[in-house]
Amino acid sequence: MVLCVDEKSQIQALDRTAPIFPMMPGTPARATHDYKRAGTSSLYAALDLASGKVIGSLHARHRAIEFKKFLQTIDREVPAGLDVHVVLDNASTHKTPAVKRWLAAHPRFVLHFTPTSSSWLNLVERWFGELTTKKLQRGTHRSVRELNADIRAWIKTWNENPRPYVWTKTADQILNSITRYCTRINNSRH
Fold first, then answer.
1. Please, what is the average pLDDT of the chain?
2. Which residue range(s) make up the domain with 108?
């Protein structure tokens, strides 16, 4: 199983100081610019590349301890007979001695790190984008508990009809596009 894993840390529970006025014909939705902060939550998520299903875990903090707990959650959720290939970034929380010891004791886990500044390669980032634009961006949460309940409901609803993300360009098309861009910016210096 290939899982794209990352964390969305410091998700803020925000409550608007006045109600959001809904959209009406010819009038966009309107919201005040100010809000009250009610705390933060950190979401760890693993997107199954083949099915689009998401394993999620919410924590109050964002440290190696929570990452190791999330690996344990993945270990419980993924059938025992499967190897687990994890695509993730190079964050320091992913490489601590405690995490390395846990991985050594769980050889079915194989980590694949994305290159620096290449978070776009990790498809769970796309899922985080949907969570943000479709749920969190316009949401109102008076407490972290309310925020976490909303995120859990989003994951549950997503998993009822998961959709895997599919690259629409081949690797050669992407590399050619990057080559054209690099040529263009290098030639602009003259």
1. 88
2. 2-187
Tokens of 145: 């508990």
Q: How far is CA 174 from the centre of its chain?
A: 23
Find the mean pLDDT for residues 45-60: 96
Cα 41 to Cα 152: distance, rounded to the nearest angstrom: 12
Whether the CB-CB separation of 151 and 45 falls below 8 Å is answered with: no
In CATH, what number is assigned to the domain containing residue 47? Answer: 3.30.420.10
Task: Return the structure tokens found at 178.
Answer: 């990057």
C-alpha to C-alpha distance for 138 and 14, rounded to whole angstroms: 10
Give the ranges where the chain is alpha helix by DSSP (H).
64-77, 97-105, 124-131, 144-160, 171-187
**Which tens digit of pLDDT belongs to each residue from 111-155?**
999 988 887 789 999 999 999 998 888 778 888 899 999 999 999
- Note the pLDDT of residue 75: 98
**Domain tally for the chain?**
1
